[in-house]
Amino acid sequence: MNNEKLTYKLMKNNRGQLQNLTDHLNTVDVTNNIKFTHEEESNGAIPFLDTLITRKEDGSIQLVVYRKKTHTDQYLNFSSHHPLQHKLSVVRTLLDRCYNLVTETEDRDKEEEHVKQALGQCGYPDWTIKRVKTEILKRKNENKDKKKVKHTDRDNKSKGMVVIPYVKGLSEAVSRVFNKHRVATAMRPHQTLRNILVHPKDKQETTEKAEGCVHMMCGVDCGERAA
């Protein structure tokens, strides 16, 4: 039996065992609310989380960023009312994934170009990409040359963190004041679409609320109840 026939036979057996395992798992939940599925590789490739794993002829694997066909490349718009660090974190997340997951240099260059185009459609200027890319490269170089240094001076330590609502122009100034006193700041949106649009219950005026009282036994067998 040649290698091709042997490989086909092994793959066929594995597929049968995988289907049997899937069928067995689907019998565990008697309520039939949980359904298990499995996915088989196609043309030597299979998606896993955010990556597409491809088996190469030499036995090694190639990783690229995987996006579903329904992916729209819509991210936090740069003109939205959010702190700048929130928008830069979008860039940082996409570039970190590109540099840390993609294995081939050519694929990495394509992914970086795709990120630039996608963010450009969301209003991100070129300087945001360059700024984050420079920070990532700087951080990698610092990690290589990093030496462990023990800080014994308590005055250099952070004194905590505060969370403040984001108001453009004001929150940045407040953050700078806190930073002078070694207090870290985190910002959250002051108003969201959920707060504006979602109201499960109508607001009830105070005058429409009915008065009520609670009665409980006082513990003494006197026939009376305490209000």
UniProtKB/TrEMBL annotation:
<protein>
    <recommendedName>
        <fullName>Helix-turn-helix domain-containing protein</fullName>
    </recommendedName>
</protein>
<dbReference type="Pfam" id="PF26215">
    <property type="entry name" value="HTH_animal"/>
</dbReference>
<dbReference type="InterPro" id="IPR058912">
    <property type="entry name" value="HTH_animal"/>
</dbReference>
<feature type="domain" description="Helix-turn-helix">
    <location>
        <begin position="74"/>
        <end position="131"/>
    </location>
</feature>
